[in-house]
């Protein structure tokens, strides 16, 4: 089977039958383009001729590229896409064996999520104070990100109707899975102020849209817009650490666990399919407790 046709068939499968998000499908496509290009250079135009040794050789190639070197996590992600592709080929009887099944990704270093302190979060949010249209919008956006731990993609796709009356918001996560997350009083006040005093002024600048957060021209705020809003607020707050939308998601989880929240509750709030993904935040909390103990206890050192 033609490699390009096989890749297209696989992407249709994960998009339609498995219902994966468009961003995830696009990431799979990018990974498989790298793989397809490598197969072409290696002279392999028949997927049935690919061997497990060649899959391992592809992984070594990814780790040795002089141009645009890849991190271990990027290599692991690409290999995951390739393994899913070959598994699909076997399930569809397009090949006789899954040659990628036993290929191991490179070892990943233990990387803890980056969170900022409560004081830094407060400074970041205070940097959006004001009564101007843009300030009201930015305040509502940042308060919502920190109050819910939402991914930036989940926030920029919100519609006005997703903010429910019971002080909760309906988020649509990966695979179009929906979850209900409490807003908290600060976020609710900021969103109400934005909806009453700012959004109507923004909406008349563009065509009608149900989007919750609008840009200065009246269109839905993009992921890049959200990132720039946060970066500008961080600069005004004079924060010396790098702050991104995901920083607020990490901080949300870390602060909840440090405050005594159950890891299973945090898992539900974050929309993680596995509690193992959430448990990495418990390591952050343990480090914080260890630091406090070492500083405060007279016989800790």
Q: Any overview of this molecule?
A:
- The chain has 301 residues and is mainly α.
- It has helices at 3-17, 22-41, 52-64, 72-91, 118-126, 133-148, 152-156, 185-197, 199-203, 223-236, 245-258, 263-270, 275-278, 280-296, and strands at residues 163-164, 168-172, 178-182.
- It contains 14 helices and three strands.
- The protein has a three-stranded antiparallel sheet with strand order 1-2-3, with no helix packed on it.
- The longest helix has 20 residues, at 22-41.
Throw out a few tags for this protein.
301 residues; mainly alpha; 3-stranded antiparallel beta sheet; 14 helices
Quick structural overview:
This protein has 301 residues and is mostly helical. It has helices at residues 3-17, 22-41, 52-64, 72-91, 118-126, 133-148, 152-156, 185-197, 199-203, 223-236, 245-258, 263-270, 275-278, 280-296; strands at 163-164, 168-172, 178-182.
Indicate the mean pLDDT: 87
Give the helix proportion (percent range): 55-70%
Report strand order across the widest sheet.
Answer: 1-2-3
How large, in whole angstroms, is the Cα Rg? 23 Å
Number of helical stretches of at least 4 residues? 14
Distance between the termini: 66 Å
Please give the structural blueprint.
Elements: H1 3-17, H2 22-41, H3 52-64, H4 72-91, H5 118-126, H6 133-148, H7 152-156, E1 163-164, E2 168-172, E3 178-182, H8 185-197, H9 199-203, H10 223-236, H11 245-258, H12 263-270, H13 275-278, H14 280-296
Antiparallel strand pairs: 1-2, 2-3
